[in-house]
Amino acid sequence: MLNKNDVTMLRGMFVEVLDDRDVQWKADLDQRFHDFKHEIRDEIHSVVNGAVSASEARMMNRMDGSLERVKVEIIDAIGEILDESVLPQISDLQVDMRRVKNHLQMA
User: Fold this and answer.
1) Rounded to the nearest 5°, which phi and psi values hold at 3?
2) Torsion of CA 87, 91, 92, 94, to 10 degrees
3) From the CB of residue 23, how many other CB atoms can be counted at a distance below 10 Å?
4) Which pLDDT belongs to residue 95?
5) How far is CA 16 from CA 2, 4, 10, in A?
6) CA-CA 20 to 30 A from 54: which of 3, 69, 102, 105?
7) What is the pLDDT along the chain (107 residues), one digit of tens a residue?
8) Rounded to whole angstroms, how far apart are CA atoms 48 and 40?
């Protein structure tokens, strides 16, 4: 049979062992929580970076489309200027040149 001293000594040993386990369990939990925070952070960064990459790709496609539209508008504007201003003047000059040539040949 165990006497009071033996029970007290056993109780002290159990408390000491349980305290050590409790400390180890808390340390393991803290490490797991720390690892979990890092995994979540890395996952958020990868999602954000993926979203940024996709957003950049969409923006580049939009810019390419916008540049193409601007090119077409510039070409159309140049065509209008040629049709409305330059070509009629060239035509008038050609008519004047024919008149001059005809006049010189008559003289």
Assistant:
1) -95, 180
2) 140
3) 10
4) 93
5) 20, 18, 10
6) 69
7) 667 777 777 777 777 766 666 667 677 777 888 888 888 888 888 877 777 777 888 888 888 888 888 889 999 999 999 899 888 998 999 999 999 988 888 65
8) 12
Helix extents (H) in the chain: 4-81, 87-106
Q: Rounded to whole angstroms, how far apart are CA atoms 59 and 66?
A: 10
Q: Is the pTM of this model over 0.90?
A: no
- List the structure tokens of 14: 């159990």
Q: How many whole angstroms separate alpha carbon 19 and alpha carbon 15?
A: 6
Q: How far apart are CA 107 and CA 61, in angstroms?
A: 66
Single-letter code of the amino acid located at 106: M
